[in-house]
Amino acid sequence: xxxxxxxxxxxxxxxxxxxxxxxxTLRLTPDELCFSVSVDRASMVWAELTQTHFFTEYIMNxxxxxxxxxxxxxxxxxxxxxxxxxxxxxxxxxxxxxxxRQPCLTIEIELPSLSLExxxxxxxxxxxxxxxxxxxEHQAPNIPEFDxxxxxxxxxxxxxIVERMKNMSPRLTLDASKTGVFALKVDTDSxxxxxxxxxxxxxxxxxxxxxxxxxxxxxxxxxxxxxxxxIVHPDGVKCNIVQDRVVxxxxxxxDFVKIQYFLPSVFT
Amino acid sequence: MKCVIAGANVKILAKAxxxxxxxxxxxxxxxxxxxxxxRTVNMPNSAYADFTFLRxxxxxxxxxxxxxxxxxxxxxxMRSAIAVFKSINLIDKQVESCHINxxxxxxxxxxxxxxxxxxxxxxxxxxxDCEVLQTTYNKDSASIKLSxxxxxxxxxxxxxxxxxxxxxLEVCAQKLLLRNYVDDTSGLSNTIRTQFALGKGExxxxxxxxxxxxxxxxxxxxxxxxxxxxxxxxxxIYFEEAGRPVIFTLKNQSFEVxxxxxxxxxxxxxxAETVLTNKPQETSMRxxxxxxxxxxxxNNISSNKIQDKSxxxxxxxxxxxxxxxxxxxxxxKQASTSTEVAKRKSNSNDANKEENLDDQSDLFExxxxxxxxxxxxxxxxxxxxCFQKTFDPKTLPGYDIILVEDSx
Lengths: 268, 408
What we know:
The structure holds 2 protein chains of 2 kinds. By secondary structure, chain A is α+β, with helices and mostly antiparallel strands. Chain A has helices spanning 4-20, 51-54, 76-83, 155-165, 220-226; strands at residues 24-28, 32-39, 42-50, 70-74, 92-99, 103-111, 119-126, 128-129, 148-151, 171-177, 182-187, 192-197, 202-205, 213-219, 236-242, 246-253, 257-264. Chain A is built from 5 helices and 17 strands. In chain A, the strands form 3 sheets. Chain A has a 10-stranded antiparallel sheet with strand order 8-4-1-2-3-17-16-15-9-13. Chain A has a 4-stranded antiparallel sheet with strand order 12-11-10-14. In chain A, strands 5-6-7 form a 3-stranded antiparallel sheet, with helices on one face. The mean pLDDT of chain A is 85. Chain A: It is found in: Nucleus.
């Protein structure tokens, strides 16, 4: 990685993931890097990064021609901490998979210095290479058919609201209708608070009636965690709802970062 | 002793006190003819710091009629000292000058802060047990001498994990490497290993006799580094080899700072870190290994009334002693650093005095043999039968059923 913006984006992405989970899987293919986070075997986050945008040089060799993939499992907190040095105007970064008594992701950071030679910082993050027989568990998640797919309002605004709602109730109800109204709602014993956003683009809807609403109730903390992705400056965020089953949030930055986020609905 | 510190210099003193707080619990204030020293040593005696302010630092300094014994006996608790200089920012903005007074035979030392708005705050800090802190270390004999801008090392340290405990410094012909120290026992699977390389060109001075590496504690070093960065003074580093102390020095026209840290011995068995405490009722002092990583070795040394003698122990560690009639010695010997700190404790207790006299002629060094090394680990065979020559797997029931396939 040479580009300052690419290094910043990559650091931000790893940082957000590190706040979500303690264990994450990285899948390397010749074209992309996929970070995936699973909770109880159900996929929660699936982030695809196009390698050409981030890396100026990218070499990988999988087990065989047909199975040209590498699966790694590691603690994203460690990776995020190691990338912390990038904040100090790094010149370049190299990420390598090495074997130093154990498999490691070696991050070589080149930092500017007072003299001609640049400083070099090396971090070894221990990882586990996932054997082939377990690969099946780490495949891309199936995306279900949605009852409604609607654009999200600006994450910044949603974040402000959810931050306050978070203190009122552990659960949040999202609903959307064909008319382009998207609402966030919390219920407490003493009050019901809801915020409505209007005139949002509806991409698809199974509803016949204009007035019909699709809703799902989810864990507000997990939803709030998703809003941290605002830091990567997404170009578009879609909220897809399957009535009372699952909320899928899809976020993309140009076409090099695609993030799928799954929130199962909870029942009261 | 009376001195006045003006304006911006008060902030330097405040920062120095803050740096000392992170190292030790007690502070020794030592006035000399032309200088004033603030010194501390940490609890396990593995770190020692010395901030000496020279005549040019003060706007007024007079040694007065202090006796040597008074001058060498001022110890105050760190907590009382930090209370005087609690907020550095406020001191920077509001304090006009700071006066320090130490009378001969006093029980208190006076810190007077004069504020710009006319307020005068007088702090009376009680002097604790009179003790003398003596250290011996030699910068000139060090085979490796480095010097660099404090910012270089500061930037380097920022690449490391916040809660890092120990760091390894390795010198090579062309570059200096900093690594976080990973204990073999802690397991590698859950720790990040970080290595930071600094080119030779970043140092103002890079004299290395031989390539070596040392490991030392980060906490004290960081507080020293913070101070160094705030006063923008180059740092000099002096050391020899693992197990010998490392000395960090800052020097400019108005002050000189030394930090001596113990380093981890690469050969653990030869390392004995002992701290001797003196209990007045006992004639023997029991050494205790402070550091868990270090194998225990007990030294029982009885010392009373030793007339200016220094004993070379068989360990090759010097015990440096200085004594005085009716002074009982408290020794702190530290093999791993060989920073010898000898403390004299005045003893007013009559009973103890008698005991001292009784034991006057009694000078012996008693050593308990090294505690036995831990038993050699024998490989415990779980499937012992499998290794026997007569073993035939086919005799076992179900030998041909594969329960688990071969891994990648």
